[in-house]
Write a structure and sequence with these properties.
Radius of gyration: 20 Å
Strand content: under 5%
Helix content: 55-70%
Distance between the termini: 14 Å
């Protein structure tokens, strides 16, 4: 997600944000009405800082953390008020286990862009992962309710995960259901549903959602282990064997495969 391990919207907790500028901020157009800021509104310095931040994201994805942090420093030298730079730095520190540094950066980002839905979602996830689940829900709600947020299913899934941590299964199911309505094909949502129903021993309902996850890149070791256990619970030996073969081939050194080899199906 022992505690249910739920599929999250970031490979290290939340998906590294697509670098966007000041989502939800406005300027006054020729009509006198507020308009959303777009790339054409950016200054030269802001565009340069954005390039640096995109480089930082690329280095992060290559696990070159020090270089990624250096690029963020350069972005902030160019444009010190760049809220996305603080957010990405917070997410990198979170991945590194440097939680006080992560929190400092998230708070700085939120102070610069308090109504940015992407930042709200990311800070909410930070709180959820650090024992402050109840405080995280309002931040997810800010993101969910934003008309400018392009990924509401991400915040809905995160809210569902944190609701389960709060032992509020009803709220979690409602959040996952809303996420499913936005994108029924989402592996994240289907895996979250499958894990929740498996824990409830509703194996047929769990199987419905497992069967919807068909893309190989979505089949993590954690997911394949769930599918193996579900096949065994349902007496579906063919499905169990298929997923065992996939787990062995893709993740031979994983904790999940070692657990399978021990036969510890109920750990």
């Amino acid at each position: 997600m022992n505690t249910i391990k739920i599929w999250c919207s970031l490979r290290f907790g939340i998906a590294i944000l697509a670098v966007v500028w000041m989502a939800g901020c406005t300027s006054v157009g020729g009509s006198g009405q507020a308009e959303l800021l777009t790339s054409s509104d950016l200054t030269v310095a802001q565009r340069r800082a954005s390039i640096r931040l995109q480089l930082a994201v690329g280095y992060y994805e290559q696990k070159q953390m020090s270089t990624a942090l250096d690029e963020i420093k350069q972005a902030l030298v160019i444009y010190p008020e760049y809220s996305d730079a603080y957010t990405v730095r917070g997410m990198i520190y979170m991945a590194m286990g440097e939680m006080p540094l992560a929190e400092d950066n998230f708070k700085r980002a939120m102070s610069l862009a308090p109504h940015n839905p992407e930042l709200s979602n990311n800070y909410g996830w930070f709180l959820c992962q650090n024992g402050q689940e109840a405080k995280s829900i309002p931040y997810f709600e800010v993101a969910i309710k934003s008309h400018t947020y392009q990924s509401p299913a991400k915040a809905l899934n995160n809210a569902g995960v944190c609701s389960l941590k709060l032992k509020d299964g009803k709220a979690a199911e409602q959040y996952f259901t809303r996420a499913f309505k936005f994108d029924p094909s989402s592996p994240e949502t289907n895996i979250n549903f499958a894990k929740m129903y498996y824990e409830r021993k509703e194996y047929d309902r769990a199987y419905f959602y497992v069967s919807r996850v068909t893309k190989p890149e979505s089949m993590s070791a954690d997911f394949l282990w769930l599918a193996i256990k579900l096949g065994r619970k349902r007496g579906d030996r063919e499905a169990e064997s298929t997923h065992v073969a996939q787990l062995r081939r893709k993740f031979p050194n994983s904790v999940e495969y070692a657990t399978y080899q021990r036969g510890a199906f109920d750990e």
